[in-house]
Specification:
alpha+beta; 3-stranded antiparallel β-sheet; about 45% helix; 5-stranded antiparallel β-sheet; about 25% strand; about 230 residues
């Protein structure tokens, strides 16, 4: 394997580029650029011209759109090994959403024209791109529907379980977002979020130390997530 693709045994190859030839992989690896971002920085800005295919190597980011009144609506959170540029990749020339770093992150970036050229040359690769794009969009839709079918307590429980089960794989973690961002994610007010978290703490379901969360009654939280 070329030295350019030596990062972490090249997840790009394992997760995505396994369907390209060795020469095509070598070319992709040669064009790959690694970028580092600090918390609060933009990886993608809504309206920016799409120039790169972006893969999240490490860290955590939020995907969101800005409404006409200037308020954010969080669409999803992306973790390592996610492709954060797929939602607008071929539908339009500009991004229709933003991606902001909420934990220091590193991305692998490949020029979009390189990806488009490879799609024209390699039908298997094109199929894998389409499948991955569909999985990403399906996941965003699924998250939105799962949140909207729940009441306030159910939505808060869903968010806590999402970070516990899918992001950190632990029942103890530091919330990477503040109460306002949680409210933006679940389409509730900040006051409602604070109230629900306080109720969970008083009921002995979680412990809260600032942004640090410990889930004490996991099964109860699952029940609330499902039934409110």
């Amino acid at each position: 394997m070329d030295q350019e693709c030596s990062c972490e045994a090249c997840e790009l190859k394992e997760l995505f580029f396994k369907n390209v030839s060795s020469d095509q992989l070598s070319s992709l690896c040669g064009s790959r650029i690694e970028k580092k971002y600090s918390k609060g920085e933009y990886i993608i800005e809504e309206g920016r011209f799409i120039e790169e295919f972006i893969y999240l190597k490490s860290g955590l980011v939020k995907l969101f759109v800005t409404n006409t009144d200037g308020k954010e609506q969080i669409l999803s959170f992306a973790k390592p090994f996610d492709f954060v540029s797929l939602l607008s990749l071929f539908s339009k020339p500009h991004y229709s959403y933003s991606v902001m770093v909420i934990e220091d992150s590193t991305t692998c970036n490949i020029p979009i024209e390189h990806i488009k050229s490879l799609i024209l040359l390699n039908g298997t690769f094109a199929k894998s791109i389409i499948e991955k794009m569909n999985r990403v969009s399906d996941a965003v839709i699924h998250e939105s529907l799962e949140i909207r079918r729940r009441n306030l307590r159910g939505r808060i429980a869903y968010v806590l379980l999402h970070f516990s089960d899918n992001i950190y794989k632990s029942r103890e973690f530091e919330l990477p977002v503040n109460r306002k961002e949680i409210a933006e994610y679940i389409s509730m007010t900040t006051e409602n979020v604070i109230r629900a978290l306080t109720e969970f703490r008083k009921d002995g379901i979680i412990k809260i130390y600032g942004k640090f969360i410990e889930i004490l009654a996991y099964d109860k939280l699952v029940q609330i997530s499902e039934h409110g």
